[in-house]
Amino acid sequence: MRLVPFHYAGHDNPIVFINPEHVVAVRAFTSSTHIYVSVLGKDASPSYYPVRETIEEVVKLLTA
After folding, report:
1. Do 51 and 58 contact (CB within 8 A), yes or no?
2. Tens-binned pLDDT, residue by residue, of the chain (64 aa)
3. CA angle, corner 46, sides to 6 and 40, nearest 5?
4. Which residues are within 8 A (CB) of 39 and not within 5 positions of it... i.e. 6 or more apart?
5. Range of the domain at 10
6. Domain total in the chain
7. SS3 state at 10
8. Residue 22 in 3-state DSSP?
9. I need a surface site. Which of 32, 52, 55, 60 has the fewest CB within 10 A?
10. What are the angstrom distances between the C-alpha of 10 and each of 21, 44, 47, 64?
């Protein structure tokens, strides 16, 4: 399993490790990029991680 580190777009800016095999989509926003994963949330909504990297950086790191 390959894990890719990203800077979580939260208050403390911790690192979150994401398995690229579980990523289903990425979406750019003004202050963050959302990485959507295949695991659903509690209410069956899509699960995502907001990260500080740009969408270009996210795609590059996930596909490397």
Report:
1. yes
2. 899 999 999 878 799 999 999 999 999 999 999 999 998 878 888 899 999 999 999 999 999 9
3. 95
4. 22, 47
5. 4-63
6. 1
7. coil
8. helix
9. 60
10. 24, 23, 16, 25
